[in-house]
């Protein structure tokens, strides 16, 4: 069975600080990996995804994530956060052959102006 | 971009009644849709996978007779909460996966309150 763990539940940063949110998954085969974001009062939106190819994936709004197969990780990064990045971030995995996507518990990011 | 709508956005019902929530993919076809439940300060919990033209696949612990799912067309799935109780109060979110991809597009959610 596939599972996802996000280590940070609540992160508080000042504007311009760098961000890295951890995500680890457990599944030994081929995986598709996602980061979703939920801004306050809005629904979930896809931030970026990895299916294959270059393990460094660039998404919207300056976010990127790196797939490290040996570490079963897919950490999300942004060099300089903005107040508007305040949101909840969910890592998700879909393993080969499974229809469903499994979500992590989410990380709440609060950016202080 | 791909848009998924849900209706209603909020519903309040009395205990013992049934409530139907609709999920529509507006600009793409989705053979597969998903229903989630999100508890306060928790992640999304997958309830079931809805497949057009066939029975839904329910996750362990989800009562299929209580949460009826109908995927009537390639753009519409409905979730009916039957004989609702206060403990069914929650935020229900659907998602749809385009037939040609793996990513899911989420609806805005439905806040159900059972009194």
Helix share, percent of chain B = under 10%
Total count of strands of chain A: 12
Poorly predicted residue ranges of chain B: none
The helix content of chain A, as a percent range, equals under 10%
Report the sheet-strand fraction of chain B. Answer: over 45%
Mean pLDDT of chain B, to the nearest integer, reads: 91
Order of helical and strand elements of chain A? EEEEEEEEEEEE
* N-end to C-end Cα span of chain A: 41 Å
Largest sheet of chain A: 6 strands, mixed
Largest sheet of chain B at a glance? Answer: 7 strands, mixed
Order of helices and strands of chain B: EEEEEEEEEEE
In a nutshell, what does this entry contain?
Chain A has strands at residues 3-5, 10-14, 19-21, 24-26, 31-38, 45-50, 56-58, 64-68, 73-78, 87-95, 102-103, 107-112.
Key traits:
heterodimer; A: 113 residues; mainly beta; 0% helix; B: 115 residues; seven-stranded mixed sheet; four-stranded antiparallel sheet; 52% strand
What can you see in these coordinates?
The complex is a heterodimer of chains A (113) and B (115). Chain A is built from no helices and twelve strands. By secondary structure, chain A is mainly beta. In chain A, the strands form three sheets. In chain A, strands 2, 5, 6, 10, 11 and 12 form a six-stranded mixed β-sheet that branches. In chain A, strands 3-9-8-7 form a four-stranded antiparallel β-sheet, with no helix packed on it. A two-stranded antiparallel ribbon of chain A has the order 1-4. The model of chain A has no long low-confidence stretch (mean pLDDT 91). The mean pLDDT of chain B is 91. In chain B, 33% of the residues are buried. Chain B is built from no helices and eleven strands. By secondary structure, chain B is an all-beta fold. Classes of the chains: A mainly beta (113), B mainly beta (115).
């Amino acid at each position: 069975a596939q599972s996802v763990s996000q280590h940070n539940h609540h992160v508080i940063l000042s504007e311009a600080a760098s961000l890295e949110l951890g995500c680890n998954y457990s599944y030994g085969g081929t995986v598709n990996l996602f980061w979703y974001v939920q801004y306050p009062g809005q629904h979930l939106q896809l931030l970026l995804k990895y299916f294959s190819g270059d393990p460094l994936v660039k998404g919207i709004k300056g976010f990127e994530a790196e797939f490290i197969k040996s570490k079963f990780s897919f950490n999300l990064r942004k060099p300089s956060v903005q107040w508007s990045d305040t949101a909840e971030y969910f890592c998700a995995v879909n393993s080969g052959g499974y229809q469903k996507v499994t979500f992590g518990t989410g990380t709440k990011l609060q950016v202080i102006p | 971009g791909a848009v998924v709508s849900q209706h209603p956005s909020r519903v309040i019902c009395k205990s013992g009644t049934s409530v139907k929530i609709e999920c529509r993919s507006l600009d793409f076809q989705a053979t597969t849709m998903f229903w989630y439940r999100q508890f306060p300060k928790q992640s999304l919990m997958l309830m079931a996978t809805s497949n057009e033209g066939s029975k839904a696949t329910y996750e362990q612990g989800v009562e299929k007779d209580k949460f009826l799912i109908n995927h009537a067309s390639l753009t519409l799935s409905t979730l009916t909460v039957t004989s609702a109780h206060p403990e069914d109060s929650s935020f229900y979110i659907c998602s749809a996966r385009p037939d040609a991809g793996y990513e899911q597009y989420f609806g805005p959610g439905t806040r159900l309150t059972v009194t």
